[in-house]
Amino acid sequence: MNAYSKKDGASKEGLRNGPQNGQRILSLWFPHLAAERILRQRLGRSWRSRPSDHLPLVISHRQGNTQRIAALDERAEALNLKRGMGIADARAMHPSIDIVEADPEADRRLLEGLADWCDRYTPLVALDGTDGLYLDVTGCTHLFGGERSMLDDILSRFFHQGFDVRAGLAATPGAAWAAARFAGDRIVPDGEEEALLVPLPLAALRIDPEVRASLESVGLRTAGAVM
Q: For 209-220, how does the pLDDT look when each residue is reduced to its tens digit (9 = 90+)?
């Protein structure tokens, strides 16, 4: 396997979609990264480890002529606010929400810093979009007591640094990605990638949104329905 750098898209060059001689790929997903950047600045890195009365946090950005939700924290999600919703509508529903302007460059720098931090587990780390990382941990997990032990260590360390992170470990980048986002901190044994994907929603296959909508309109709603 070729080494790859911590640059967006490098994962596509350095990570191969098919299993490669015992390859094990870890996908890490930070669903609230933009909000956590703000909360860590305000409340400290260990904010998740102590009580906080902060207001629900919404990150806004301009889309056309409208300010919309680009990201949000768990408290805002609990209010049924969603990405893409207009800020005016969100404020009308919940006037007390805390609204902060998006800063994609700062989010990118934070993600790159997290990638550097992951060097303690493997030197092969790549950015995955704006909120994820890929780690090639092939041949590394025994140094941390095995796959489960390593995964638990990563999740615990990130939690204590103020991050909510989801993880998926599998033989291919695609299966690891799907496990992190749709199966919840899942270790997929080699050869069981298809069994993982079958019950998951179509989004787990990273199908184009328009194609996915067309498939769902005719009742094809799971990955297994189109595999």
A: 899 999 999 999
